[in-house]
SGCA protein
Amino acid sequence: WHLVGVSALVQVVAYNRHTYETAAQRLVVTIVPAPGGELPYQGEFLVENRNVEELLPAAARDLFLQATAGVWERDDLRVTNVTSALDRGGRVPLPIEGRKEGVYVTVGSRGGFSPCLASATSPQSRFRCSLGQQPLASCYDTFAPHFSIRWCNLTLLQLWPSPTTPGPAWGPGVLEDGEDFQPPTEVTPQDLLPGYLVTLLVPLAVAVLLCLLLGHLMCCRREGV
C-alpha cells in the first residue's frame, strides 16, 4: 500500500489446510501513516521452522522481536511485514516430519545495523554461502531454539527518504482587470485540400484498378473466350 488516509475494502479468502474448507470475510482497511514515520533500517529474516499463521499473533511477534534484539542490539524494533515463503517462490513442504513452509519477517529500526548483522551480509559471508557453508557471524544466535533462521537469506536494507520535487504553482484562474488574454503562439493557417484529395483519391484509384483486374480475370480469361 502506498496511499495514506484512504480506506479500501478487501475480501480475504482463507482455507483450512486440513479439511480444505474455505471462508471469506470482507475487511475495511484504513491506511494511516506509521507512528513516527517509516523506519529507515530494515532487515528481512527467513524463519524456516514456522508457517505464516504462526507468526501473525502479537505474542509470537513479540517473542521474535526479543530474539532479534539480541543480534541487532536495539530496543526500538518493530515488525513491518510477515510474508509466507510460498509467496516468494518457495515450495510446498512434504507432509512429513512436521516440516514448515517458512516465513519472511521484516523488522525495522531507527538505528543502524549491529556488527553481527553486517558481518552476516558481508561479501565474505556471501562467498561462504555460495560454497554451502555457514556465513560469518560475530554474535550468539539468540533466535534458537524457537526460531530457525537461514542466515544466508538475510537481507539488510537502508531506506533513504525520497526528495520531493515542488509541483506547479497554480494561479487563481481569473484574469486581472484591464488585461486581455494573449495566446502563447499563433497558429498559421494551413491548406488541407491537397491532403484531403490524396486521402480520398489514392484509395479510390487503387479500388478501380483492382476491380478492372478482377473483371479481366473473370470475364476475359475464361475457357473458350
Observations:
- The two ends are 78 Å apart (CA to CA).
- The chain is about 25% helix and 20% strand.
- The chain has a mean pLDDT of 82.
